Amino acid sequence: MVFGTWPTGLADKPGSAWPDVFADQVHDRWRHSSFSCSSTLVNMSNAESIPVAAGLSEAKRRLLRKYLRGHVSKTAGDPARITRRLPGQPAPLSLWQEQVWLRAQKAVDMPPFYNESIIIHRSGPLDARILEQSLSEIIRRHEAWRTTFDTLGGQPVQVIHSALATVPLPVVDLRKLPAEKRQPEALRLATEEAQRRFDLQKGPLVRAELIVLSADKHQLVLTMHQSVADGVTVNVLFPKELVTFYEAFSAGKPAAMANLPIQYADYAYWQRQWMQTEAFASQLAYWRDRLMPEPPALQWPTDRPPPASSTYRGAIRPFTISNQLVQRLNAMSRGESVTLFMSLLAGFSALLYRYTNQEDMVIGTLAPSGRKRSEVQNLMGYFLNPVPLRMNLCGNPTFRELLRQARDVVLGAIANDDVPFEYVMAKAGLSSDPNRRPLFEVVISLAPATPDLGPGWSQTFMDVESGGARWGLYLELGDRPNGLLGRAQYNPDLFEATTIGRTLQEWQVLLEAGASNPELRLSELPC
Q: Is 90 within a domain?
């Protein structure tokens, strides 16, 4: 098993420590452990409850608990705790923001695939004035949501604007329409909003619109540019803060919300200092070793020949993985000391092998790499990093062997995912065809369960299309009580909708077989 940097003082037994932690606790608290929630693997607020490896001394147990809380750097070379910038210190882009900003400069004539949307549903009476007040308070609280971008000396910088007393909330009232036409119109409006471009220099980079369907049915449509919001921001932090502020203001009380110790620009400044450490160099070395020799591009048969240059057009196909299958996958994962995401990855790599006959392949995923530090856990902003997961399917492995390989690949990547993907590509000397995304065109991610917002509140993110697609195929899954809710985002210039639907069905058939008998070999798996 390959690991990256470990907390100072714990490096003597990495190989024996993690599997025990995995087997004891991962399926109760870390059941996903994809990069969609990899931060929970290295930083948990209730770390005292985590059973650590039996082979560690009590002193090392205490050190690991501190590390899991984010109180101990991974190596002695890491910078100190993140603190507020001094007045006059620059506000650079974070490494993650810089990747998005650079690509956005080249995508001005392409679909807005960096737009992220969420719909907050309210069943019951709603006071639009208090909702507007709540939204304004969130934007006041988080500098990232009142940030735009400019250049200074040829380098991009963050421009943080003063908070407004009130951020206007447009209201669209659909109650004059026939009842059966209101929801389709609401979805049309949300989709239209999701496909409207942002100006990164002028801003704002967050837009909201309240749609009134009836006296007791409302939808808040929120659209953000990805440079200021990641999945944790959109699906966890924002909904929780919105409801907390709304309920408090409705009761005439202040919201019980702890002050933020730092802001996003403070993190970005700290991260630039981290680039000078041994830890950064060590992680770069890991990826150079992992990605050499350079893996071949995935030769997945498409319905139409790829265009000369990528169009980044997008369409979505919703799908579900039943609770029955998810329970079987969880049971198998528990027995094999892997997570649900690792099982999904193993199955998907097997399916891609069936399509391509390639034994060496790279599948991408999205890592909230910047959220490993305790100081940023409640910060809204962009902390995602595309991460390559290189799988080797030579020798006709069993599904069990694929599961173990997926575990090794994921854990090794989690330990080294703080280096931005573009840096990895450049420093590893890998080729970069400008007409296709380097290393991978297929991406899979699994998000944790969305929070319970309380009576009368819910959220959705699967039903709004931005019209763009960053990859040829992106499988985005979210944990729900009745199974996994997913959407396949794909490029219609490459694939027919029926092809994507058939691919999703074959993947689930293969997962069923692997969960039933992990000893089946790759050649024996149905699809």
A: no
Residue 360 falls within a domain, yes or no? yes
Q: Would you place residue 41 in the very low, low, confident or very high pLDDT band (cuts 50, 70, 90)?
A: very low
Q: What is the mean pLDDT of residues 504-526?
A: 96
- 423 and 376 co-located in one domain: yes
According to the model, what pLDDT value does residue 169 have?
Answer: 95
Q: Could you tell me if 323 and 219 lie in one domain?
A: no
Q: Residue 177 carries which DSSP code?
A: S
pTM: 0.84
- pLDDT band, residue 9 (cuts 50/70/90): very low
Q: How many helices (H) and strands (E) would you count in the chain?
A: 15, 13
User: CATH code at 340?
Assistant: 3.30.559.30
Tell me how many domains the chain contains: 3
Domain containing 184 equals: 95-250
Mention every residue, 6+ apart, whose C-beta is less than 8 A from residue 134: 242, 245, 246, 249
Same structural domain for residues 288 and 368? yes
Average confidence (pLDDT) over 276-285 = 92
* Summary mean pLDDT of the chain: 83
**Lowest pLDDT segment from 141-155, 412-426, 465-479:** 465-479
Mark 496-524 as b/e (b = at least 16 C-beta within 10 Å): eeeebeebbeebbebbbbbbeebebebee
What are the φ/ψ torsions at residue 183 (nearest 5 degrees)? -65, -45
Please tell me whether residues 377 and 420 are part of one structural domain.
yes
pLDDT tens digits, one per residue of 43-77: 333 333 333 333 345 554 555 454 444 444 444 45
240 occurs within a structural domain: yes
The C-alpha angle with vertex 388 and arms to 382 and 394, in degrees rounded to 5, equals 160
What does the alpha-carbon distance between residue 244 and residue 215 come to, in Å, rounded to a whole number? 22
Residues shown for the chain: 527
Q: 322: which DSSP letter?
A: E
**pLDDT reported for residue 106:** 79
Radius of gyration over every alpha carbon of the chain, rounded to an integer in angstroms: 23
* Final residue of a structural domain among 235, 250, 265: 250
CA distance 115 to 111: 9
Whole-number Å distance between alpha carbons of 301 and 502: 14
In a domain, 223, yes or no: yes
